[in-house]
Design goal:
41% of the residues lie in helices and 14% in strands. The longest helix has 27 residues. Helix 3 runs parallel beside helix 9, helix 4 runs parallel beside helix 5 and helix 4 packs across helix 8. The protein is globular. It folds into two domains: 145 residues, Aspartate Aminotransferase, domain 1 (Alpha-Beta Complex), CATH 3.90.1150.10; 237 residues, Type I PLP-dependent aspartate aminotransferase-like (Major domain) (Aspartate Aminotransferase, domain 2, 3-Layer(aba) Sandwich). It is built from twelve helices and twelve strands. The strands form three sheets. The protein has a seven-stranded mixed β-sheet, sandwiched between helices. The chain is of the alpha/beta class.
Length: 393
C-alpha cells in the first residue's frame, strides 16, 4: 500500500485541525464490537422504507430514469415538497426558485453554512445538540458560540438569546434544531414566536433544522419560518419520517435570493441527487399512503417512548418525557456519579447496552445519556433489564 509523502502534511486545510472525529460514531463503533450488545445509539429508524416509496423507485428504474436531473432536484419532487410544506405547516415556497433537494439534511446544513460564513464569523448554537453543526462551523473557519439550555428544560429562552447577542459582535447565524437531537425537546408556537421576535430585530440568518418535524407526539410542529420567513432557511428531508436514511434525500427552502446563493454551493458540491431516490421521496411528501406510513411509524415510536421513559424513571434516572424525535435524554441516577462517559462505557462493557454519553452533545449534556428508541420494543425491554441488572450489582 502506498505511503503518503511526509511533506504533504503541510498541504492540508488548517481548519481540519479544528475538527475531531465524531465521538458518537467512535463510541458506537467501539461498542458494536462487544458480542451480544443491545444498541440504543444511532438515530437510524428500524422500519423498512414504505412500499409506496419502493414502488416509485422501482418504476423510476424501469422507466430508465437515469440521467442528470436539475441540480435543485426534479420538478416533481420539488413540487411535492412545496405541497408538503403548505399542507402540513402552512409555509408557502415556490417549487422552482425557493426549494432545493439535497443529499440528506447533512448536505443542506453544510451548503447553508458555507454560503454565509466568512472567517471569524460566529454562529449561535443552543446546546445540547447534534455535534455536526459545530464541526462544520469550525471547518469553515467560523466560531461556534454554544448557548447552554440545560437550566431551562433544554429550551432556548429569549433572554438567553439576547445575552448571547449582546456578548458577541460577529454573529452571523443561529442554528435551531427542533424536535431536538439529543433531547427530544421541541418548541411551542408561542416559544418560537418569542424567539422570532428577538431575531426579527437582527440580520441573522436562521438555519432551522426540522428533520424530525413529523415525529411530534401530542401536538403539531410549527416552523419558525412561519414568523420570520425572510431570514429563515428551513431544512428537512425524508430520512426520519420516511425511514429512508440510505436514500439520502433532504431539502432546503428559503426566499429566492437566499436560495440563489446557497444553490451555488449546492450545485458545485453534488451536481444533482439520484433520480430513483428522488422518485421514491415524492409519495412520502405528497401522498396519503406516504403520510399514513409516517403516522404508523410515529405511533410505534410513541409506544416505545412511553415504555422507556417509565422504565428509566423506575430505575431512578431523571427523565422528562420528550415531545418529539426518537430519543430519551436521561440524567444518570445520583448514586452513579456525573461522569456520563464513564457510566456509558461501563454500561456497554459490563451491561452490554450501548447508549451515547450526553457530554458528546455539548454544553449542558454532562451527566446525561442519550438513548435512541428507534429500535424494537423487544430490544428496549432487554436493554432495560440489563441496565437494571448493572445498577443492582
Amino acid at each position: 500500500m502506498p505511503q503518503m509523502n511526509a511533506n504533504l502534511n503541510h498541504q492540508f486545510n488548517t481548519n481540519l485541525s479544528r475538527v475531531q472525529p465524531t465521538p458518537i460514531r467512535v463510541f458506537d463503533n467501539n461498542a458494536s464490537k462487544i458480542p451480544g450488545i443491545v444498541k440504543l445509539t444511532l438515530g437510524e429508524p428500524d422500519f423498512n422504507v414504505p412500499d409506496v416509496a419502493k414502488k416509485a423507485a422501482i418504476q423510476s428504474i424501469n422507466d430508465n430514469d437515469s440521467h442528470y436531473s436539475a441540480g435543485s432536484g426534479t420538478p416533481q419532487l420539488r413540487q411535492a415538497i412545496a405541497n408538503y410544506l403548505q399542507n402540513r405547516y402552512d409555509l408557502t415556497y415556490d417549487a422552482d426558485s425557493e426549494i432545493a433537494v439535497t443529499i440528506g439534511a447533512t448536505e443542506a446544513i453544510y451548503a447553508s453554512l458555507f454560503a454565509i460564513i466568512n472567517k471569524g464569523d460566529q454562529v449561535l448554537i443552543p446546546t445540547p445538540t447534534f455535534p455536526l453543526y459545530e464541526a462544520i462551523v469550525n471547518l469553515l473557519g467560523g466560531e461556534a458560540i454554544n448557548i447552554d439550555t440545560s437550566d431551562n428544560d433544554f429550551v432556548l429562552s429569549p433572554d438567553a438569546l439576547k445575552k448571547a447577542l449582546a456578548d458577541h459582535d460577529h454573529v452571523k447565524a443561529i442554528v435551531l434544531n427542533y424536535p431536538s437531537n439529543p433531547t427530544g425537546v421541541t418548541y411551542s408556537a408561542d416559544q418560537l414566536k418569542a424567539i422570532a421576535d428577538v431575531l426579527a430585530d437582527t440580520d441573522l440568518v436562521v438555519i432551522a433544522d426540522e428533520i424530525y418535524s413529523e415525529l411530534i407526539y401530542g401536538g403539531h410542529h410549527t416552523s419558525i419560518a412561519k414568523f420570520i420567513p425572510g431570514q429563515t432557511i428551513v431544512l428537512n428531508g425524508a430520512s426520519k419520517s420516511g425511514a429512508m436514511t440510505g436514500y439520502r434525500i433532504g431539502f432546503m427552502a428559503a426566499p429566492a435570493e437566499l436560495m440563489k446563493r446557497i444553490g451555488m454551493v449546492h450545485s458545485i458540491m453534488i451536481t444533482s441527487p439520484s433520480d430513483p431516490a428522488m422518485a421514491a421521496a415524492v409519495p412520502i411528501f405528497d401522498s396519503d399512503d406516504g403520510h399514513q406510513a409516517t403516522l404508523d411509524m410515529k405511533a410505534a415510536y410513541e409506544a416505545r417512548r412511553d415504555f422507556l421513559v417509565a422504565a428509566l424513571q423506575k430505575l431512578d434516572f431523571t427523565v422528562t418525557t420528550p415531545r418529539g424525535a426518537f430519543y430519551v435524554f436521561a440524567k444518570i441516577p445520583a448514586d452513579q456519579g456525573t461522569d456520563d462517559v464513564k457510566f456509558a462505557t461501563k454500561l456497554a462493557q459490563e451491561g452490554k447496552v450501548a447508549v451515547i454519553p450526553g457530554s458528546y452533545f455539548g454544553d449542558g449534556g454532562e451527566g446525561y445519556l442519550r438513548l435512541s428508541y428507534a429500535t424494537s420494543m423487544d430490544n428496549l425491554k432487554l436493554a432495560v433489564d440489563r441496565i437494571k441488572d448493572l445498577l443492582n450489582k
